[in-house]
UniProtKB/TrEMBL annotation:
A Gene Ontology molecular function term of the record: DNA binding
Alphabetical UniProt keywords: DNA-binding
Highest taxon, organism lineage: Bacteria
Pfam family, one: AlkZ-like
Organism: Actinomadura sediminis
UniProt-recorded name of the protein: Winged helix DNA-binding domain-containing protein
Amino acid sequence: MTTILGIRDLNRATLARQFLLARERTPVAEAVGRLLGMQAQEPKPPFLGLWSRLDGFEASELHAALHDRSLVRATAMRATLHLMTAPDYTAFRATLQPVLDGALRVLGTRAQGLDTEATAGAARRLLRERPRTFNEIRALLQEEFPDVNERALGYAVRMCVPLVMVPTDDRWGFPRASGFALADSWLGAAPDAEPAVDALMLRYLAAFGPASAADAQTWSGLSALGEVFDRLRPRLRVFADDAGRELFDLPDAPRPGPDVPAPARLLPEFDSLVLAHADRRRIIADAHRPHLTTKNLRVRAVFLWDGFARGVWETEYKRRVATLRLRPFEPLPPEAADALAVEGEALLRFAEPAAKETVVTVG
C-alpha cells in the first residue's frame, strides 16, 4: 500500500533538505550544490538566502567562491539566472538547453530575421576577445545584423551561448551592468555535450523532494518528465500526496516527522524554495499564493513560521536606520512575532552592518 504524505510531512521533508530546520556549518559551494542552485535574478538574494541557511555565514565566503570560480551566476533553470556550482553548471547546461530554446518564443515578431546560429557564432567571437556587458554585445551585434531587432539579438545570445557573469568587488558581487564571459573560457572546460536529465532529476529530489513529475517540470522548465521518473522508478521510493498524486523520492533522503519544530526564517526575493513545485502548498497556502508575485513578476521575500510562508517582508535603509517590515497574510500569534523580530534584527545586522539602528515592524 502506498504511503500518503500530508502537507506537513512534505513541508518538513523539504525544509530539512533546504537547511531550514536548522542552520548548518557548511562550506558555501557545498551548500549551493546541495540546494542545486539558488535563483539569482538579482545579486543580493543569494547572500540573504545563504545567511538564512548557514551557521556563521559571512558575505566574504560567497565573494571568495565567486572569484575562485567554484560558483557561477548563469542562466539555467526556467531560463532564469541562478547561482550554481561550476560542476553543476557544466554537467547540466546541455540538459536545460531545450528550456532555453523554448524561451526564445517570447520574442514573437521581434525575432524576424534572427539567425540564432549565426548570432551565437558572432557573440562567441566577440567574447573570445574579452568579457563584455550586454550593452556592448547588443551594439556590436547590431552592426553585424542591422536588420534584426537589437533586443532579440541579445536575448538569443543569453539563451543559446553558455555564459557566466563576471564577479567584481561590488558589495553583492556584481554591478548593475555586469560583464559576461564564455563559460568554457571562465571555467577552463566546456559544458558537457550530452544531456543528463536522469542525474538532474535525482539531484532535484535530493534538494526538493518528495516531488511529482509536475513539480520537477515547474522547477526546471523541462517537459515530459513523467517518462524520466518512470525510468527511475526502480531506484526511488514512491509515495502519494493527499490528492492521490504520485510523489517520488530518494530512498535514504531525510523525511522528518510533521511535528518536528521549524524555526522562524526570512527568505529573500526569488528564493527557489517557493518556486520549486507545481503544488506549493507544502510552503504556501493556495489562498496566499497570489501575494507571492508582483504585477511585474518579482517574487517577493517571504517569512516562514512553523515552516510555512505566513507573509512577505521588505527592508528600507535611510539615515543609517535599517528597517524590516513584516507584512503577515493573517494575524500572527505573539510568539511568532517575537521570534521573527529576533530573526529580522539579526538579518538587518548582516545586510546593513553600518546601520546605527535596526527596527523590525509587523503589519
